[in-house]
Amino acid sequence: MGIAHLKSQLKKQTELLGEFGKRELCLQTAILERNWPAMDSVMPELERLSATLEAVERRRHSIVTKLKLTAGLEQDAPFAELVLKAKPRDRTELTILYRNLQIAVLRVKNHTSGIDTYVRNSVRTANTVLGEIFPERKGTIYSSSGAQSPVRGSAMVLNHEL
User: How far apart are CA 43 and CA 29, in angstroms?
Assistant: First the structure.
């Protein structure tokens, strides 16, 4: 388990993050188009990829930790110090692979942030509209004994086109 194994894990993790990003774009498209069946089909794929990514990340971290110990570095030493301890022919490739991994992570973060912002704003808008339509239902409702009480009233269907 050496530098070659680390390179392999970096490549694998970058590829998995790329696939995860593609699936997130599918999720984003499904949400924007309000295609709930498509969204439901993408979620299990994202969960599977997430679990796989977590396992690969644990393996990569374990490899890096062992390589740092072998190189005489402290466990919390930056990755760049480990690269400097590698053979000159491996340094460039490790640097490129690590940079590619960082770029893949930033892409996934960007997709996730976009989805999060859209969903939060949609929920906030829907809650504001409902609060204006039914002001008597704003906030928490309490019973005469001071316990929280469920809102009673007629059921309402909200148009998903909001």
Answer: 13
Is CATH 3.40.190 correct for 3-134?
no
Between CA 9 and CA 17, with CA 15 as vertex, the angle to 5 degrees is 100
Residue with tokens 């770029």: 103
Rounded-to-integer distance, Cα 130 and Cα 156, Å: 10
CA angle 93, 94, 99 (to 5 degrees): 100
Asked if 49 and 19 touch (Cβ cutoff 8 Å), the reply is: yes
Angle at which helix 88-133 crosses helix 3-32, to 10 degrees, equals 20
pTM attached to this predicted model? 0.77
Q: What is the pLDDT of residues 80-122, one digit of tens each?
A: 999 998 898 899 999 999 999 999 999 999 999 999 999 999 8
Domain boundaries, the chain: 3-134
